[in-house]
Design brief:
heterodimer; A: alpha/beta; Rossmann fold; 8-stranded mixed sheet; two-stranded antiparallel ribbon; 6 helices; 14 strands; 24% strand; globular; B: alpha+beta; Phosphatase 2c, domain 1; 6-stranded antiparallel sheet
Chain lengths: 279, 265
């Protein structure tokens, strides 16, 4: 199980669910100047950025993954969250995403100069999503829509690696209990295993980030405990990869983080030899 | 498609190389590399195999530069990895100036990576010295009266040691990425009936797994069992059917030639 090769012929599938509800305007992690919606936009842009880089090969990009991004909240509806040239699309190959960001900013960062030193470099920084916050939080409906996409995907990729659904939210669902919908989604899957659900909880509460816990003990509130319940166990490969990447992941670890930016989750799927010293 | 056989036959050693790309990939996407120099030299022969990492860009180019530099250069010990500046510059020059989209430019900036094993073999006393980083392997096999037997496997010796994230040699020098502490060195002597096999990681892991199970494949890759590209293709198919990861596969085989006793003193 969870051993299907991921390649251009047998691509993997990521479905991101973005909470764009009014409550996301509240402060993030006790901050006075950063909103949860800002943090969410940063996380999804970083995830898509890293996924694109991971699939880049030579002067092109290999479609190792197909990606959907569903927003829930704006006008209390659930729909594709893409704006610009991707507007209205659901599952798209990663090359479409990489080639069609909303905009590309120039940012300065320190980089290796190739001779063992550091140099300031201007790098291209693509953005696909802006911070959004309006309406209710139809999280259960978002999981239903994700389940439809999962069903469609596994019908076409029966032997492939099962889809991974990553939900980024403050956890305050307004259309009923999302746990049942998440469990229903996890009853779907391919011959290689059940679909996986990960949750990234962005809270207004201050507190240390929590990554990949194996138990709900110590989680700060009922929303985080509920999101933990909705989260799948990591596969053995994911646990070992998480450890390699310096994340705390013990036996039984779940795909749940609290107030953290787990951009490493993009590395949890194997697409070939990854140098331990590649950063 | 699988590449044609590349025989390189000259005294005092006989060397053949076989290679094929990942199933489903084009031949141009093959990212291993191998190089041989001095197989007909009365003094010294050099062989190297490198395996460009899937998760880096322009790694086939980097793998090719590494093996060519090793067999053509003067450094064949750990110091080889101290003098990578020239080929690192060459790698950068070859990709600089290309109009790359943002993702390709950023990926290239992170550098290419490859596993490497290289051997320098003394044609007089048949002593060999190997250096390696990563999981390309050198397998020293000896012909006993009744069977072929593994003498040593280097740098990895058990199939469980192969993972998907080894430390590899990078084409960009970084502050915390010095390859020297990761260099492994081994030495041996090539007996009259011995063979040195150089194999990229997936093939090495399969060969070791077969030996561990008591079903060694040494005969299958010896000159008696494998001589054509079709033979190699059959072997690779078998390895993949037995669960070996779908990867580029490379095998270089070095044996002493009958009559290749020049300079033996």
């Amino acid at each position: 199980m969870y051993s299907a090769e991921i390649s251009r012929k047998n691509p993997g599938c990521f479905i991101f669910l973005l909470d764009q509800s009014a409550s996301m305007e509240d402060p993030f992690g006790g901050s006075s100047d950063r909103r949860k919606a800002d943090e969410l936009a940063t996380i999804i842009n970083k995830l898509l950025h890293n996924l694109s880089i991971r699939c880049a090969k030579g002067d092109s990009i290999y479609d190792y993954f197909h990606v959907a991004v569903i927003g829930y909240g704006q006008d209390t509806v659930v729909k594709s969250a893409f704006d610009g040239p991707m507007s209205g699309k659901d599952l798209v190959p990663i090359s479409d995403l990489a080639n069609n960001p909303l905009r590309i900013e120039d940012r300065v960062k320190k980089a290796d100069d190739g001779n063992g030193g550091l140099v300031e470099q201007t790098v291209k920084f693509p953005l696909w999503f802006e911070a959004k916050h309006a309406g209710g939080t139809p999280m259960s409906s978002a999981f239903k829509m994700a389940a439809d996409l999962v069903q469609r995907w596994v019908a076409e990729h029966a032997k492939g690696f099962p889809p991974i659904v990553i939900n980024i939210t403050d956890g305050e669902s307004t259309d009923g209990d999302p746990v049942q919908e998440a469990k229903a989604l996890c009853s779907l899957g391919s011959d290689d295993g059940a679909a996986l659900v990960f949750n990234i909880h962005l809270s207004s509460a201050a507190g240390n980030p929590i990554e990949l816990p194996a138990s709900a003990d110590g989680l700060p509130d009922k929303f985080s405990k509920q999101l933990f319940d909705m989260s799948s166990n990591l596969t053995p490969f994911m646990i070992s990869r998480a450890k390699e990447l310096g994340m705390p992941a013990d036996e039984g670890a779940r795909g749940f983080v609290f107030n953290a930016q787990p951009v490493q989750v993009i590395q949890f799927l194997d697409i070939g030899t990854r140098p331990a010293n590649l950063r | 498609m699988i590449d044609a056989l590349h025989p390189v036959i000259a005294a005092p050693f006989s060397i053949e190389a076989f290679s094929c790309q990942k199933a489903g990939n084009a031949r141009t996407e093959y990212e291993d590399a191998w190089a041989i120099r001095g197989s007909d030299s009365p003094t010294r022969c050099r062989v190297a195999v490198a395996d460009g990492a899937t998760e880096s860009s322009f790694s086939a180019l980097w793998a090719a530069l590494l093996v060519e530099s090793f067999v053509r250069g003067r450094s064949h010990g750990p110091e080889f990895f101290r003098h990578l500046g020239a080929i690192r510059r060459l790698w950068r020059r070859k990709i600089r100036g290309r109009p790359l989209p943002w993702f390709a430019a950023e990926k290239a900036g992170r550098g290419a990576y490859a596993a490497f094993v290289g051997v320098s073999l003394n044609a007089v006393n048949r002593g060999w010295r190997a250096v390696a980083i990563g999981d390309c392997c050198l397998l020293h096999v000896r012909a006993l009266p009744s069977q072929l037997e593994l003498v040593s496997a280097f740098p990895l010796s058990h199939s469980e040691e192969f993972g998907s994230s080894p430390f590899l040699v990078g084409s960009v020098k970084k502050t915390d990425d010095d390859p020297l502490p990761h260099v492994r060195v081994s030495e041996g002597v090539l007996g009259a009936d011995d063979t040195l096999f150089f194999a990229s990681d997936a093939l090495s892991a399969w060969l070791l797994r077969r030996a561990e199970k008591g079903e060694p494949a040494w005969d299958a890759i010896s000159p008696l069992g494998m001589n054509t590209q079709e033979d190699f293709e059959t072997l690779v198919t078998q390895a993949r059917e037995e669960g070996t990861r779908n990867d580029d596969m490379t095998l270089v085989r070095l044996t002493r030639r009958a009559g290749g006793e020049r300079g033996a003193g």
